[in-house]
Amino acid sequence: MSDETPNTEQLSEHWRNPIHLFSDYLKYERQYSEHTVNQYVSQLNFAALYFSKLCDDWFGVQGEHIRRYSMALRTKQLSGRTISLKLSCIRSLYKFLKAKNVAHHAHYHNPAQGIKGPKFSKPLPKNLDVDQMASLLEISDDDPLAIRDKAMMELMYSSGLRISELVGTNLRDINSANGEILVKGKGNKERLIPVGSKALKALKNWLNIRGQFAMPDEMAVFLSSKKNRISVRQVRLRMQEWGIKQGISSQVHPHKLRHSFASHILESSGDLRAVQELLGHSSLSATQVYTHLDFQHLAKVYDNTHPRAKKQTD
Fold first, then answer.
1. Are 270 and 301 in contact, with CB atoms under 8 Å apart?
2. Whether the Cβ atoms of residue 183 and residue 159 lie closer than 8 Å to each other
3. Is 301 left (phi over 0), alpha (psi -120 to 50) or beta?
4. CB half-sphere exposure, 152, CA atoms < 13 A
5. Span 258-276, pLDDT tens digits
6. How many other C-beta atoms lie within 10 A of the C-beta of residue 120?
7. What share of the chain is helix, strand, coil (3-state, %, to 5)?
8. Are the CB atoms for 207 and 220 separated by under 8 Å?
């Protein structure tokens, strides 16, 4: 039950086929990233290896089997968050199988329904303060890759992009004249986001030399030295290197830039809904966690703004 690649050779097609159908659904219909799809598949393969010792296929799994699986995970001293994520993968598979009528059982039910992992406290995401961001982005190196990296980091911080959105950006998505970028986020949802002047300047500097790395028909904005679209892994490594080089005390990674963007916008504006739209969150609750708002702040905003919450004057 480690997070290494599971050996699935002993699994029959009865176990592997539903996972394969689910992975295609996540990839092609939900437009999930390759990394996310691989994580789902890996977790489901681990679960299948466990359940295959108890029953013949996914449709033979009972709620008690899943509870035993959860207990087995706890004996491995995994965190509550990790166990909950593993169980969430199983619930998602069964929801898919039921929605697509893969089960072909008249009285089929989701055995994972209602089974939750141990409670855990969500760690608040950490951000860089304004001075740290300024230090990170103070790159004067004229090396082409340094110019590219500065443009990537400026854009991520300017517009709060997910790393998948950054690497997926194409030339046609950027409107420099209007200072906007069209982003395709989770579930293939598009949103139009402003791009700041410093990011536009950094992008212009990169686009002026991008031709050194691009094939004639290449549409990706950010490219690797091998003249293809830069990968998520390469972006992470480069940002980590720049964090060290620029003397940032904490580790620098793409999500931290996105969180810093959200935190700094929220601190200045107090507009939670605007931050939600900029981040591309489908629900306000996701933004509340992301921007570490406490309840007192939310209550204050509510009391001051909601028509039926305002105190009546005598």
1. yes
2. yes
3. alpha
4. 34
5. 888 877 776 666 555 666 6
6. 12
7. 55, 5, 40
8. no
H or E element at residue 190: strand 190-194
- Angle formed by the axes of helices 272-279 and 254-269, nearest 10°: 150
Rounded-to-integer distance, Cα 153 and Cα 119, Å: 35
Query: Residue 174: beta bridge partners?
Result: 181
Q: Give the residue numbers annotated as catalytic, written as ranges.
A: 162, 186, 255, 258, 281, 290
CA dihedral 267, 269, 274, 275 (to 10 degrees): -10
pTM, two decimal places: 0.56
- The end-to-end CA distance of the chain, in Å, is 65
Can you read off the two tokens belonging to residue 45? 């393969």
- Are 257 and 157 in contact by the 8 Å Cβ rule? The answer is yes
Percent pLDDT > 70 in the chain is 77
H helical segments located in 128-253: 130-136, 144-159, 163-167, 197-209, 232-245
